[in-house]
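User: Hey, my collaborator sent me this sequence without any context and asked if I could get a structure. I don't really work with proteins. Can you help?
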Amino acid sequence: MKNRIILSCLCLIFATSYSQTALKTMSKNIQPPIAKKIAKTLEKHGDKRNDDYFWLNDRENAEVIDYLNKENEYYEQMTAHTKEFQKQLFEEMKARIKEDDSSVPYFFNGYWYITRFETGKDYPIYSRKKESLTAEEEILFDCNEMAEGHSYFQLGGMSISPDNKFASFGVDVVGRRIYTIQVKDLKTGKILSDKIENVTGGSTWANDNKTLFYTKQDIKTLRSDKVYKHKLGTEASSDFLVYHEKDDTFNVGVSKEKSRKYIVITSSSTLTTEFRTLLADNPEGEFKVFQKRVRGLEYDISHYGDSFYILTNKDKATNFKLMKTPENATEKKNWKDLIPHRDDVLLEEI
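Assistant: No problem. I've predicted the 3D structure and written it out in structure-token form, which is a compact way to encode the shape of the chain:
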């Protein structure tokens, strides 16, 4: 191993030395593309600044795309002499990675769920086994097959319906974290007609097995700012807007409590959080504010039994503390200390 590392270092030194010599020769003949300057004044909080390259922000502009292609071409020309060395480095790094790997199985709602990789394949395979790890494997998604024909592929936000019959999932084939949510019938293996585009990818099932809650992003900033409700078998255009976070310093998410009793909308910024809850058995109901946002108040909630447990910095608990409140009285005036704040212990999670 030691000799191998030394050899790699020597190869890198040689390649670097060779690259510097080659670059001096090549740079005389290859000129980098120069982006033109277009004056643009931006004003925020009374402060003005000039950005001559703001025009490059328009990803749909043909001139921008042309310039980026020229940059890529310049890169390819300037690094052409390192291609073989890049390949050697890649193969060496790949040789150190276990290709036929598998996640630790986890048990949820009657099934063992596993994510595994096969030798020679680039993408994960998601599967499950009913009740026992010795049961027959059921392939949920083979991302290697799904990725065929795409230069980029990412599956995210997989969520299984409470009755174990459907799986919602998000797919991104561009690489901008803009997903399309679809639903798979796990009994027939067919993809349903439901298609929800331009979303964050994650979704949460209500307990009726036919209602999905999901989040959408601002098309320009990609800030997650809206929560929608979708009914299986309906057009996405008719989905109901449940919540719109208008404060652009907050991001929004939607999930289900581990107790499966509540669906939760989370609004969070750097120093402040706010939650809204809805009984998962009542998807047509209205979300209720858990505790109205207060600047500087951070809290996280976990439901169990007839109570919520709150991890919070309330009362200047800079290291956070754990509090408890009845599920029908969630304002902070009802919170009671369970694990008090300690100056020498940071409480991170429960």
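In plain terms: The longest strand covers residues 191-205. You can pass these tokens on to your collaborator as they are.
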